[in-house]
Amino acid sequence: MMAAMETYDVIIVGAGMAGLTLALALEKGGLDVALIEKQPFDQILDAGFDGRASAIAYACFRQWKALGVGDELEAHACRMDEIFVTDGHLPGAASPKPLPFFLHFAAAEISDRTGDEPLGYMVENRITRQVLHRAVTERGITLKVPAAVVEHRETGSFAEIALDTGETLRAPLVVSAEGRKSSLREKAGIGHVSWDYPQSAVVCTVRMERPHNHIAYEHFLPSGPFAILPLTENRACIVWSETHAKAKALMQVTDGFFYDHLLARFGEFLGDIELIGPRFIYPLSLGLAEDMHKGRLALLGDAAHGIHPIAGQGLNLGLKDVAALAEVLIEAVRQGEDIGTEIVLERYAKWRRFDNVSTSVVMDGFVHLFSNGNPLLRAVRDVGMGLFNRVPALRKFVMEDAGAATGDLPKLLRGELV
């Protein structure tokens, strides 16, 4: 006997951090949501699945607080109160002879923060997934896990999704939050511009002897950026970009050999460091969809845009997508509109298109500008950074923009429910 078709307001395919957050936001707005994920959650939530930590902009963290998960996430988050950016050398307290060619960002310089907000929060991805998954489960949102989409078709005022479990679901709108290799995007024929960088990121966690004082460091080296990102318990997430060959070699060497190479880049300004847990490797690339919707399909997060982690903006772009899409859909439902129509989905695309494209272009430019050892270009970079650092208005704009607090903000990024 054929299983009955299940009907929802929105079907979200992909239960990553952006997909889970959208499910919570739509549920808060009164929509009936189904969330589909092809990988078992016990694998996704395992400590060995993802060794990364994400820098969450302070406005994006407001969204999680509005959705009722911020307090639990904040208990596992580390504030970022300051950021030092240098071109291959350590400034300030990290250098016995401070050089003027660096950028310094401090949360105290931003006047429009709510209360004592930092520049951002560092949260380990596995913790974020655990908290969001628990909230989705507790709120009774439908989860189809593990389940993969085998067919996607549109019939009149509904999109239908057939799963490999034998179930069929329908809704006025399907959202692809599948990540960079979105199968629904490809099946819909939405164009996708992409290219690989000649770099992979090696990620690991260390514990320091001296306190990090909630300061993040990013050093631009010829092979790629080297970031020291503060975590709880005086730990740091290291994101070390190298050529593919060297990154693969770093994954294969002994812990002692890896430690020696790491220490040469990390330095001794925070005392002895201790490696904690395994190493991870992630090839780096850029991808940008030519549109954010087609028919009754909308793209979210990395399915629409995947960028280099050079400034930690990847997940933040996805969370900004969530805030905009949730507000557009919830308000459309309240007005009695069909949320899967082009007129509704174009509001979402118009709200997010410029930010997504411009951020992707700027991040790509940074990669090409800083990931090289040209001595003339490096001299120009250093002088430019030094001059930029002397203009408080520019620093403030960059901090607010990176904090997701500029432009026409959706309500969730202001900490308000839709």
UniProtKB/TrEMBL annotation:
<dbReference type="GO" id="GO:0110142">
    <property type="term" value="C:ubiquinone biosynthesis complex"/>
</dbReference>
<dbReference type="InterPro" id="IPR010971">
    <property type="entry name" value="UbiH/COQ6"/>
</dbReference>
<dbReference type="InterPro" id="IPR036188">
    <property type="entry name" value="FAD/NAD-bd_sf"/>
</dbReference>
<dbReference type="GO" id="GO:0006744">
    <property type="term" value="P:ubiquinone biosynthetic process"/>
</dbReference>
<dbReference type="Pfam" id="PF01494">
    <property type="entry name" value="FAD_binding_3"/>
</dbReference>
<dbReference type="GO" id="GO:0004497">
    <property type="term" value="F:monooxygenase activity"/>
</dbReference>
<dbReference type="InterPro" id="IPR018168">
    <property type="entry name" value="Ubi_Hdrlase_CS"/>
</dbReference>
<comment type="pathway">
    <text>Cofactor biosynthesis; ubiquinone biosynthesis.</text>
</comment>
<protein>
    <submittedName>
        <fullName>Ubiquinone biosynthesis hydroxylase, UbiH/UbiF/VisC/COQ6 family protein</fullName>
    </submittedName>
</protein>
<keyword id="KW-0285">Flavoprotein</keyword>
<dbReference type="InterPro" id="IPR051205">
    <property type="entry name" value="UbiH/COQ6_monooxygenase"/>
</dbReference>
<keyword id="KW-0830">Ubiquinone</keyword>
<dbReference type="InterPro" id="IPR002938">
    <property type="entry name" value="FAD-bd"/>
</dbReference>
<feature type="domain" description="FAD-binding">
    <location>
        <begin position="8"/>
        <end position="337"/>
    </location>
</feature>
<dbReference type="GO" id="GO:0016705">
    <property type="term" value="F:oxidoreductase activity, acting on paired donors, with incorporation or reduction of molecular oxygen"/>
</dbReference>
<keyword id="KW-0503">Monooxygenase</keyword>
<keyword id="KW-0274">FAD</keyword>
<comment type="similarity">
    <text>Belongs to the UbiH/COQ6 family.</text>
</comment>
<dbReference type="GO" id="GO:0071949">
    <property type="term" value="F:FAD binding"/>
</dbReference>
<keyword id="KW-0560">Oxidoreductase</keyword>
